[in-house]
Backbone:
């Protein structure tokens, strides 16, 4: 059974998760947008950045998770937060800025989705997004390796393929450039983690969820986490100060609609 997102677990590494949003926002280039929408707002950390940057704008957060929306409303009671399926969402009126921090990687069909989002913009409006590009990192390869073990493979099945691989920078450029001025870049972060258990905590809030959701009981989930953590111990050896470095590449795109 699919569990709702856990805002408290997500916020455990809020500084690290918000840094890419701040770096994305710094490249947006809009001076005074009137309507700003935070797609996949989560607990409101990225929405707060947008509200501070554009205090005169109407800023709205969208998410499909009731738990995340509740946390966002508690954090920012003066803003509007709405539940929405981003795969089906359309704006009732043109938007000046669509901001998507680490959410679109969960949605399939980017060849149709990104042009659809671009079409929601007013002329001169911006689609700004960043997506984890980490499916080949050890953190995620080892999820799939662990899922293939006999205790889990019968249950997990297609959950491991829930996230599609990104199209690649050149493909996204070709997709958006006919209708927009496109700026894109890729950053490889290295996050200092106390130990392998901390890496497990990080990914439990995001990438590990579909694997754990597919397992039928708590004991099997605990066994999966133990097997996965044992693999992480080897893949992320302790550095000289005892910490581990979690490599985390992300792809950034800022597309300004022509018109």
Residues:
């Amino acid at each position: 059974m699919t569990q709702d997102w856990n805002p408290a677990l997500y916020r455990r590494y809020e500084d690290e998760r918000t840094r890419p949003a701040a770096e994305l926002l710094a490249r947006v280039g809009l001076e005074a947008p009137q309507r700003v929408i935070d797609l996949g707002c989560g607990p409101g950390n990225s929405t707060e950045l947008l509200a501070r940057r554009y205090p005169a704008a109407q800023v709205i957060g969208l998410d499909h998770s009731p738990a995340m929306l509740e946390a966002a409303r508690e954090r920012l009671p003066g803003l509007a937060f709405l539940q929405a399926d981003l795969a089906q969402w359309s704006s009732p009126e043109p938007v000046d800025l669509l901001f998507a921090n680490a959410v679109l990687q969960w949605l399939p069909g980017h060849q149709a989705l990104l042009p659809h989002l671009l079409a929601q913009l007013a002329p001169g409006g911006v689609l700004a997004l960043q997506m984890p590009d980490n499916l080949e990192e050890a953190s995620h390869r080892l999820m799939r390796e662990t899922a293939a073990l006999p205790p889990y493979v019968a249950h997990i099945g297609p959950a491991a393929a829930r996230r599609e691989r990104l199209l690649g920078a050149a493909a996204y450029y070709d997709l958006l450039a006919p209708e927009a001025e496109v700026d894109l870049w890729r950053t490889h972060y290295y996050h200092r983690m106390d130990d392998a258990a901390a890496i497990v905590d990080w990914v439990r809030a995001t990438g590990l969820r579909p694997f754990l959701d597919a397992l039928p009981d708590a004991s099997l989930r605990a066994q999966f986490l133990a097997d996965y953590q044992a693999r992480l111990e080897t893949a992320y050896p302790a550095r000289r100060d005892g910490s581990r470095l979690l490599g985390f590449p992300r792809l950034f795109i800022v597309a300004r609609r022509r018109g």
Q: What stands out?
A: The domain at 7-257 is CATH 3.40.50.150 (Rossmann fold). Strands lie at 35-39, 58-63, 80-83, 95-101, 121-132, 180-193, 244-257. The chain has a mean pLDDT of 92.
